[in-house]
Amino acid sequence: MEKQKQKQQSVNEILPLELIERILLRVPVKQLGRLRCVSKLWCSLISDPHFVESHLHNSPAPTHVCLFDSDSTEGHFVHLEELFHDKFPLKAVSLPFKKKPPSEFRVMGSCRGFVLLNRKPHFLVVWNPLTGSSKRISYSCIVPCWWRFWLSYYARLYGFGYDVSRDDYLVVLAAQYSDGQQRLDCFSLRTNSWINFDSAISKVSLGPFDWKSCGLFLNGSIHWLSASLNKPYCETLLIFDLKERSFSKISLPEQLVLRDSPNLAVLGGCLAIYSTDYVKHKTEIWVMREYKVHSSWTLYEIPGAYSNFYPLCLSNDSEIIALASTSGYRPLIKFIKYNIRGELLQQYTRSIHNPNHCLYTESLLLLPNDSKPKDNNKKKKNVM
């Protein structure tokens, strides 16, 4: 009897679709881009907005990336999870700018895998470094011409966040003119338009240097630290709820003593405030373990008085990865890992042209009105 060749079955024929989806939800996000090429079925599944959203929230191993704006055409990034295991962790990436000759830009924030960039002379770019998708936003219609070159100097406060109730990303800009008039504008990526919310800001004082300009997005709101003119320390956090389009405040811990200019961070999914004490030669990091619960503020202390110190990540509630940078002709960046007892575990030092940075979590999310991600082959050309 002639032997019949058995047809080799594919994974799609062996496993039910529900099980394949559960397996893919546990795959690191940067590997999912490659797996889209396995079959049309997998490409459709991985590109589905519901799958992408579920992976963002349920992935057991989210990828944290630190992006540096090295020069006007190129940036560098490092995956924090691979930082101390990869021999050459710092990698180059082409930026989403087409204009020639190139002009200067600044990193202004991040949200759900997207990075907000400010490009001279008068536009912003929302960019997903993993997928390569981007959107250009002009602000020439709301900002006086003499402030357009650097938006961060015009804005008393600015931020970038996501409104889950409307499935919309918002760029928030607030300003105060010399005559005392205050202005609040939000750009909606879903409607592709600027919206004025002056009524929301009418009860908030934006006097000169009252607030730290750059805000952090967490739990549906953008957060800023207050910096009072009359007192040498901060008292409150200013919060803008993107769903309600309203401001509120929460108080900082009473034990907090800030001898240097404080800053905000998101560590382990929690809001944190940190400041360096050069007298006691240490950096204090206060983490709000439960959002808006005042009694949950928890103190961590890191030894050493670095001139530029930025906590980046709190992993497994036991290790803090931080960035310390120096200024000068050849600035150095140093990644440092401490345990929560303040003991140095590992460090990595590298020379880089511009130490300005932004932290984001990789995702395959698309912006509103985007139908599909860019071709994966085109994306590979941008990453070296």
Q: What is the average per-residue confidence, as pLDDT, rounded to a whole number?
A: 80
> Residue share in helices?
10-25%
Radius of gyration: 22 Å
Largest sheet: 4 strands, antiparallel
Give the strand tally.
24
* Tally of helical runs: 8
What would you call the structural class? mainly beta
Low-confidence stretches: 1-5, 373-384
Oligomer: single chain
Q: Approximately how much beta-strand content do the residues carry?
A: 35-45%
Instruction: Trace the largest sheet across and list its strands.
Output: 3-2-1-24
Distance between the termini: 56 Å
**Large-scale geometry:** globular
Overview of the structural elements:
This is F-box domain-containing protein. It comes from Stylosanthes scabra. Residues 15-54 form the F-box domain. The protein has a domain at 15-61. By secondary structure, the protein is mainly beta. The termini are far apart. The chain has 8 helices and 24 strands.
